[in-house]
Write a structure and sequence with these properties.
Blueprint lengths: L1 E6 L20 E5 L6 E3 L5 H5 L9 E5 L5 H4 L14 E7 L6 H8 L15 E7 L2 E5 L2 E7 L7 E7 L2 E6 L14 H7 L4 E5 L4 H7 L7 H11 L3 E5 L7 H14 L6 E4 L5 E3 L1
Length: 276
């Protein structure tokens, strides 16, 4: 099984010379296992690069696991040619919404005057499915879905596939300073994960000003991983203001924080590939 990172940023795309090494595209990670159809975590702008690796003859089949429908997690869908072909099939799973079905809400976003092409004009068979507390099966993969604290309906995913466990929690509202808790739903998703991909958008100083914005600190990401006894933590959903040099310092701090527990910590970057 292989895990490949195509977009690692949060909030908005921010490609620039300052973040050339880590990348500026928003959330998109692909999980592949042999000849089985791929599983894609989130549909941020990194989805376009993933699309360049897929067939354009209408044979594409795949599953997307979307954590929530903020712009930075769905903006890549109109720029994914493999699904815009006759015969292609793309099943997109995302959390139940309060204001309508996923199909209705995506259709409301992807239409003039905001975008020149409507969702219904895409030529492939793109089907949306609502989830919240579910167990799903795709081929030999088992996917557990649970709610995650954030702003608006949000879920996380635990994928058990090929004898390994990958947990994806891209956006996670951290607790107030001094409160050391992990939500039961998050603990259920993360326990014993081989790889935990987790929100790490803020430093503690940034969290002091933005603690209500729906994200958490790098330190809290380490805390969640250690409590779960995860083997590897991938810092994810990097703040747009964190250039390469800043990210190097953040990674070094997280690695030093995790030394006692033996947790391996890496920072996600575009092009990172992990073999499981």
């Amino acid at each position: 099984m292989e895990l490949t990172f195509y977009g690692v940023r949060g909030s908005c795309p921010c490609p620039s010379e300052a973040n050339r090494r880590y990348g500026g595209n928003t959330a998109c990670v692909a999980l592949t296992n042999g000849e089985e159809p791929p599983i894609i975590f989130d549909l941020g702008t990194g989805l376009r690069a993933f699309g360049e690796t897929q067939p354009l003859d209408g044979s594409f089949k795949g599953t997307a696991l979307v954590t929530h429908i903020h712009w930075d997690h769905i903006q890549g869908l109109p720029f994914f040619p493999p699904a815009d072909r006759q015969g292609a099939r793309f099943d997109v799973y995302g959390p139940e919404q309060d204001d309508g079905t996923l199909t209705e809400l995506i259709d409301g976003l992807m239409r003039p005057p905001y975008f020149p092409v409507t969702y219904s004009e895409l030529r492939g068979d793109i089907v949306f499915h609502e989830v919240l507390k579910d167990e799903l099966h795709f081929g030999s993969a088992t996917v557990v879905v649970r709610p995650v604290p954030h702003i608006g309906p949000t879920v996380g995913y635990r994928v058990e596939w090929g004898g390994s466990v990958v947990t994806y929690i891209s956006d996670h509202q951290g607790p107030p300073p001094g409160v050391d808790i992990v939500a039961d739903s998050v603990a259920e998703l993360t326990h014993g994960a081989d790889v935990l991909i987790h929100d790490a958008q803020y430093t503690p100083a940034e969290f002091a000003e933005k603690g209500h914005w729906g994200h958490c600190t790098v330190d809290y990401a380490v805390r969640v991983a250690e409590e779960a006894h995860a083997k590897k933590l991938v810092l994810f959903h990097h703040d747009p203001s964190h250039g390469d040099d800043c990210m190097d310092l953040i990674l070094d701090s997280a690695q030093r924080l995790a030394e006692k527990s033996g947790l391996e910590v890496v920072a996600g970057f575009e092009g990172l590939r992990l073999e499981l």
